[in-house]
């Protein structure tokens, strides 16, 4: 299985330039024989919106917005499944006059350009709560063509719910075990505690403190005795 993580630092609200940057990264990498391409949380809009009013111009309907169209184009071009984060405005046409609903979501597109996933973030971070609702259906689990049984989460999904539930509940990790996932995808816009100068000195070095934290949140998966491998994909934005 060949997996690509398209990691870059999107500028808040600068969708067109962010898409151009993503295209440039892919063009330089010139990936071949990809099975899966994963982008960060809110990949093309950036993450740190302070209110619904601020993010409102960038909300998209699932399957028809600019993020969905980009994902479909990339999936067809590289003949792979594409997973990308975007800010969702739910289409309530069939339920009018229902109240509007907005979610921090990821879309998944198959190699033939069909939308096959629309997952809505379950555990909201403080910033999400300024504009988004909790996804009503829990963490994602499903079988993806050519990839097998898959679990998907978005950033804060890795953490205890609202930072209030017991650490040892490991909600997302337990979900992946219960659904029998062999592939775990987490799209992220995770903060770092490291100072900027650390990345200036050693830009190619990973943030090991953050990486070890993510691993610690998957402890139940690591500890279980099984002959089957579980592949975990973290796609975070860069600084």
TrEMBL record:
<dbReference type="GO" id="GO:0008418">
    <property type="term" value="F:protein-N-terminal asparagine amidohydrolase activity"/>
</dbReference>
<dbReference type="GO" id="GO:0030163">
    <property type="term" value="P:protein catabolic process"/>
</dbReference>
<dbReference type="InterPro" id="IPR036526">
    <property type="entry name" value="C-N_Hydrolase_sf"/>
</dbReference>
<feature type="domain" description="CN hydrolase">
    <location>
        <begin position="1"/>
        <end position="239"/>
    </location>
</feature>
<dbReference type="InterPro" id="IPR003010">
    <property type="entry name" value="C-N_Hydrolase"/>
</dbReference>
<protein>
    <recommendedName>
        <fullName>CN hydrolase domain-containing protein</fullName>
    </recommendedName>
</protein>
<dbReference type="Pfam" id="PF00795">
    <property type="entry name" value="CN_hydrolase"/>
</dbReference>
<dbReference type="InterPro" id="IPR039703">
    <property type="entry name" value="Nta1"/>
</dbReference>
<dbReference type="GO" id="GO:0070773">
    <property type="term" value="F:protein-N-terminal glutamine amidohydrolase activity"/>
</dbReference>
């Amino acid at each position: 299985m060949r997996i690509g993580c398209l990691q870059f630092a999107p500028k808040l609200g600068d969708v067109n330039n962010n898409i151009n940057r993503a295209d440039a990264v892919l063009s330089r990498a010139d990936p071949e024989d990809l099975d899966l391409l994963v982008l960060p949380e809110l990949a093309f809009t950036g993450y740190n919106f302070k209110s619904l009013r601020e993010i409102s111009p960038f909300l998209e309907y699932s399957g028809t917005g600019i993020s969905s169209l980009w994902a479909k184009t990339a999936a067809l071009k590289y003949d792979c499944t594409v997973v990308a984060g975007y800010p969702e405005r739910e289409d309530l046409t069939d339920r009018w006059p229902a109240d509007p609903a907005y979610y921090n979501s990821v879309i998944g597109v198959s190699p033939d350009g069909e939308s096959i996933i629309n997952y809505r973030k379950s555990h909201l971070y403080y910033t999400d709560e300024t504009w988004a609702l909790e996804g009503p259906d829990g963490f994602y689990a499903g079988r993806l063509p050519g990839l097998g049984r898959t679990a998907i989460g978005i950033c804060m999904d890795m953490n205890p719910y609202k930072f209030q539930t017991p650490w040892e509940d490991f909600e997302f990790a337990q979900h992946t075990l219960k659904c029998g996932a062999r592939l775990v995808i987490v799209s992220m816009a995770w903060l770092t505690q490291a100072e900027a100068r650390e990345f200036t000195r050693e830009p190619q070095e990973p943030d090991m403190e953050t990486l070890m934290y993510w691993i610690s949140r998957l402890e139940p998966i690591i500890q279980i005795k099984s002959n089957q491998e579980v592949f975990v994909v973290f796609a975070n934005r860069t600084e």
